[in-house]
């Protein structure tokens, strides 16, 4: 046992011994106060019917209360001691890392777990002893052995350890919108559709653009973008067999479309089209991810800042929706699972596409030769540990 552990154990024994002495003094006291044994034992007590019975009840009550406090003390002490022991292990793993180098760390995965490598030379700097690790944002966050979460400050390297993992769920109960035969378009109350015209097959999908309400509506298996009064937008009327909303923030909205005549591409709110018939056929669009940390309140929603993973069952690519060009052209070699990023800047609480200039993007991929995923960048450089 280490000297520090011995010191802690010694302190604990002294505290418990004092608690026991105090406990004995308390049991010997007839009044509901804390008198020393020597004072209370010399007092003459006048006995009356039921006096001993009452004394027993008082003693039992005191005993139960004291045992409760001892239990709370031991539980708190044990948890703090356990957190400290985990913290020492993690601090040892990160002792040689400078806070200025956090932005260069790339998580890598093995059969044993996850670790960090240095993106400049692909050398391992933290062994794969961790259950889950994230890029610097700008603090480092991770999960040790699936039992404790930690966060390391990017300026001071001060570490916090959390054992709890209480999930927080929001109440998702909402009232169903009402179909009305006499109404046109849709009616919004508290940022949700309260009623809509029965000319639409389903309740329209509500979204905002420049602080105004719009919705995607379906009628006779055809899609359109409508205003609250039911009017359709220019070049976005009921001539599409599919419209998929992609909102990347800062009033940048695209729709992945497919016309009745099988034309495919992207169209914006002004009716301007892009990448006509140069998209992955019937592809899925993924514009954000998620990093689980402690609970849903502290977990991180990872926005892709205008990048979208476009994929079907065969092809995978990364599209820049701001520049409308392919960062990674559709291909079969790299199966792209997610996008992540590292930054040494404190990004604002409010999501802003302008922050894209402050971050470095990475793409998690799987290829046909490797079962374990790894990260690449926009130049297709692989970040795998050097052997």
Number of helices: 3
What value does the average pLDDT take?
81
Could you give a short account of the major beta sheet?
A: 4 strands, antiparallel
Tell me, what's the shape? elongated
Estimated structural class: alpha+beta
| Computed CA radius of gyration, to the nearest angstrom | 31 Å
Counting DSSP E segments of at least 2 residues, the number of strands comes to 27
Distance between the termini: 36 Å
Helix content: 10-25%
- In terms of DSSP E residues, the strand content is 35-45%
Please state how the strands of the largest beta sheet are arranged side by side. 4-5-6-7
Question: Which spans of ≥5 residues are poorly predicted at pLDDT below 50?
Answer: 1-10, 30-47, 71-77, 166-172
* Topology pattern, helix = H, strand = E: HHHEEEEEEEEEEEEEEEEEEEEEEEEEEE
